[in-house]
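Researcher: Here's the sequence for the chain we discussed earlier.
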Amino acid sequence: MGLFGRRKREEPQDAITLDETSELFKLFAGQYATATGVSVTSDSAVASVAVLACLLVRAESLMLCPVDVYRKEGRSRIAAPEHPVHSLIADQPNPLISAEEFWRWNQITEDLRGSASSRIEWRRGRPTALWPMIGPRPRIVFDKKTGMLAYRYTGDEFTDAGDYPASEIMHSKGPLLSNSPYEAKSLVEATAENIGLGIATEQFFARFLGNGTHFPAYLQTDKDLVQKDIDALRKQLDDGSGLLPAGKLRIFDRGLSVKQNDMSLKDADLTGHQRWILEQVCRTWRVPLPMVQDLTHGTYTNSEQADLWLSKHTVGPIVRNKEGVIRRSLFLPSERARFYSKFNVNAMMRGDFAARTAGYSILINCGVLSPNEARAFEDWNPYEGGDEYRVPLNTGPAGGPPDPSALAALGAHPVANLLAPLLGDAKERIMARHAQNVERGRGVEDTVAFATVVMGPIVQTAQLLGLALDPEQAIDQALAEAAA
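Model: Thanks. This is the structure I predict for it:
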């Protein structure tokens, strides 16, 4: 069988492998030596708490963002759940895992190994399943005769060993590209020294405690002690345990003297060193420190901004890359101009109810969302009349009165409800002016002239809205209340 045969394991003639060099072979093997002597691999890297924390944040943040397929129709964007790609990326890639589990695996594998590959199962020109390739990372091979690319895979439980054409592999790469744009280095390789240092630090502290070198003091003498002396000393020490002998004086004979251990637990505190390692890993993995539970310098303000930072600078590039991989791998060339996938990053706000409702309020009041559309985001049932869009009264097309359809969406409201705030303000100003005129000995005519000017814009607004408003009645009411 040829290059794209499924059973042939030997190297095809005239095919070159893109990772034949020793450095790329190390990348394929996934093992990196460090100055501490700790060999870091994609499996051992999770022994570092810093790496494990960053992995979970990145993968679970992606998992929180639901992905959908949309169809372009002119200027409109319409959800297309009927498209076969939607069921794979948003529901169930294969019978064994859900879409959330698939994307979480995809991101963790990409961070640890540099790339994540899945075999696409096609049927009648449509993708029907995605099978994660959980064995050693596939290698890219190139056939000089045909100019075709393929992925050489050693096989796993769900995918046979062999060469697979690029059209049958969904290959997503991390941000650190290697010598070619076809392969990427893992974040583990980029931070291997810091990961190795973190693992070595934790092992050092564990051995320090396990070897019993954390005792507070010891007894020292120049004399030789026989077993009888040691037994007597041990008995004396045992008699001093418990509550009752507290504060009791001890006498050590045989030339014994008490010495303090210079290496105390305080001196062996590696908290500052571990935090430095965490900061180095977080810088490369682009994870804000509050997201990995480091609140050493955390405040309410910077912790809140960490959510925004994570969404813009970490999850944003990740989902943009995934959308490109889906477009290239799962949509047919004839479909790419009309269909696309999109991750909803706004879903990361699911835990902040106040921020979500404030955003809904702004979008509803400016006519972008209807109340029922906002309720659908919260999985609440719609209500009658909630499909109508709302706009503020003081907005409309430039150079003309408000749009009648927009006014109709407001419903029929009495003048008291629509203009009550303006009328209340005008009444207070008229009453204040009347009080000033009385103190200065001026007549009521001055107050009426002032009131006419104040009521002018309100009367014009009422006319634009088609509402009846008698300005003289409003002025007489304000004067009556001022005289009273």
